[in-house]
Amino acid sequence: MAVEIKVPALGESVTSAVVSRWLKQPGEAVAADEAVAELETDKVNVGVSAPSAGVLGPHLVPEGEEVQIGTVLTTVGEGKGAPSKPATAKAAAPAPAASASTAPPAAEAPKSAPVAADAPSDTDFDVIVIGAGPGGYVCAIRAAQLGFKVACVEKRETLGGTCLNVGCIPSKALLQSTEDYHGAAHDFAREGIIIEGIKVDLAKMQANKQGVVDANTKGIEFLFKKNGVTWLKGFGKVTAPYTIDVAGKSYKAKHIIVASGSESSPLPGVEIDEKVIVSSTGALELPAIPKRLLVIGGGVIGLELGSVWGRLGAAVTVVEFFDRIAPGMDGEVAKTFQKILAKQGFKFKLSHKVTKVEKTASGVNVTIEKVDGSGTEVIETDIVLVCVGRRAVSKSLGLEEIGVALDERGRVKVDEHYATNVAGLYAIGDVIAGPMLAHKAEEEGVALAEILAGQAGHVNYGAIPGVVYTWPEVAGVGKTEEDLKAEGAEYKVGKFPFTANGRARAMGCTDGFVKVLADKKTDKLLGAHIIGPDAGTLIAELTMALEFGASAEDVARTCHAHPTLSEAVKEAALDADGRAIHI
């Protein structure tokens, strides 16, 4: 029996499309999910796929002709068709609650935009996104590209959310500036570059940072205008299903997406004044270089900001509750990371908790206690940076009032299509379960926009990289060795040190190594971890390898340019089979 292939829903504001190209001819064998034609609208080009394997029927619409949504384009009938594509190539629905190291189970994506039966027919917008951070603004732009009429709610004076305004972007600007300074002050002489009288102009450094932020946030404004996204300025509160209030005005939409992000978690008993007791936001704006900086929390943010001020001369002490820094990172990498930071001047108080923070005339006294209760200590410092994690911003948005289910950590509960238990309401990014990473939020934003357009939105939660932008950088993707041991998995390890890499030697950056983890029997790549120069860039190759189900041998057999840092990746993959060349 022949199955019809129709023009799919392309967004609620799109009623027609043009058949731009036929990819398969009548009588040809096609595989399930294989694209047979391309459609074009004024917003986007979309492929139309065969629902099952078989033989393609006649073209019922010629190329160049405009067709309405639902028009039958052709059929696919019984016959000797091409074999179905492997499961790894078939779109799978995302599972936001999965951990970063666990890929979600496959599920069928919706065939059309999931608009509830009681959704209003007359709305101001098809989609309203709450929050213009990486998840929100990317979701808004992708939805607009797919033909939806879109608005994005943002209370800040600038777009970009925490990431662009007081997070990822300004911190990376300061990390780059301080890395440049440290190199000029301490490392360049080794290369015969002598700089005398070098000094820091902190005001100019801060001004440069702000210039970077401004350029990025203005770029989002430009992208909104380019893609026709309306910026609703003000605080957004959901007042009823399909309804949101922004600055006293009510708007209706068929789909409302919560992308409100996260904020710094407070430490009970410690009052942040953003002057001497600061969060990550205040740590980016210090008007003077502190002589002493105490960081509460040995995670990514604390270590990055500790590096900023440590390079400029601050004596940095990190107090961490656990017995190691960077919890969740591969253990071997974390141990090496701590040793390198210690060489840079960091002091660590592991397995300690803060019991009291008291301002004094000369700074701050911080009382710490060993986790086992065996002793206390008072540390005098100038600035205290509180970095004990982040929490979802889900309060004051009207969610609980309309019955939206939250978990025990205040995160919005969603299903495999990012839908909440309230019709027409969705959530993505830091406000739902999963790693609080800007790129994870972006991927979810794209996936949800495509799901709403009837496409197969997809996020592989087993292939989301994490990066620490210290120097050297630290990056990882997939399973850690601890994960595999806990699972009882049989695996093998390939490692290669940067001391044996020619480019790293030329750069004078030989600390660290590349480590790959592969299945002992099948050689399939399971995880990869890097500590070394440009680790955040190098991890992309291994993330792609994970995404496509590659083996360590696949990476090893790929030609890498010489001399590059990426050769260390190839050598680590070779080492997984015991055949590294350069060590």
From TrEMBL:
<dbReference type="GO" id="GO:0006103">
    <property type="term" value="P:2-oxoglutarate metabolic process"/>
</dbReference>
<dbReference type="GO" id="GO:1990234">
    <property type="term" value="C:transferase complex"/>
</dbReference>
<feature type="compositionally biased region" description="Low complexity">
    <location>
        <begin position="82"/>
        <end position="118"/>
    </location>
</feature>
<feature type="domain" description="Lipoyl-binding">
    <location>
        <begin position="2"/>
        <end position="77"/>
    </location>
</feature>
<dbReference type="InterPro" id="IPR023753">
    <property type="entry name" value="FAD/NAD-binding_dom"/>
</dbReference>
<keyword id="KW-0520">NAD</keyword>
<keyword id="KW-0450">Lipoyl</keyword>
<feature type="region of interest" description="Disordered">
    <location>
        <begin position="78"/>
        <end position="118"/>
    </location>
</feature>
<keyword id="KW-0560">Oxidoreductase</keyword>
<dbReference type="InterPro" id="IPR000089">
    <property type="entry name" value="Biotin_lipoyl"/>
</dbReference>
<dbReference type="Pfam" id="PF00364">
    <property type="entry name" value="Biotin_lipoyl"/>
</dbReference>
<dbReference type="InterPro" id="IPR012999">
    <property type="entry name" value="Pyr_OxRdtase_I_AS"/>
</dbReference>
<dbReference type="Pfam" id="PF07992">
    <property type="entry name" value="Pyr_redox_2"/>
</dbReference>
<keyword id="KW-0285">Flavoprotein</keyword>
<keyword id="KW-0676">Redox-active center</keyword>
<dbReference type="InterPro" id="IPR036188">
    <property type="entry name" value="FAD/NAD-bd_sf"/>
</dbReference>
<keyword id="KW-0274">FAD</keyword>
<dbReference type="GO" id="GO:0005737">
    <property type="term" value="C:cytoplasm"/>
</dbReference>
<dbReference type="InterPro" id="IPR004099">
    <property type="entry name" value="Pyr_nucl-diS_OxRdtase_dimer"/>
</dbReference>
<dbReference type="InterPro" id="IPR003016">
    <property type="entry name" value="2-oxoA_DH_lipoyl-BS"/>
</dbReference>
<dbReference type="Pfam" id="PF02852">
    <property type="entry name" value="Pyr_redox_dim"/>
</dbReference>
<protein>
    <recommendedName>
        <fullName>Dihydrolipoyl dehydrogenase</fullName>
        <ecNumber>1.8.1.4</ecNumber>
    </recommendedName>
</protein>
<comment type="similarity">
    <text>Belongs to the class-I pyridine nucleotide-disulfide oxidoreductase family.</text>
</comment>
<dbReference type="GO" id="GO:0045333">
    <property type="term" value="P:cellular respiration"/>
</dbReference>
<dbReference type="InterPro" id="IPR011053">
    <property type="entry name" value="Single_hybrid_motif"/>
</dbReference>
<dbReference type="GO" id="GO:0004148">
    <property type="term" value="F:dihydrolipoyl dehydrogenase (NADH) activity"/>
</dbReference>
<keyword id="KW-1015">Disulfide bond</keyword>
<dbReference type="InterPro" id="IPR016156">
    <property type="entry name" value="FAD/NAD-linked_Rdtase_dimer_sf"/>
</dbReference>
<dbReference type="InterPro" id="IPR006258">
    <property type="entry name" value="Lipoamide_DH"/>
</dbReference>
<dbReference type="GO" id="GO:0050660">
    <property type="term" value="F:flavin adenine dinucleotide binding"/>
</dbReference>
<dbReference type="InterPro" id="IPR050151">
    <property type="entry name" value="Class-I_Pyr_Nuc-Dis_Oxidored"/>
</dbReference>
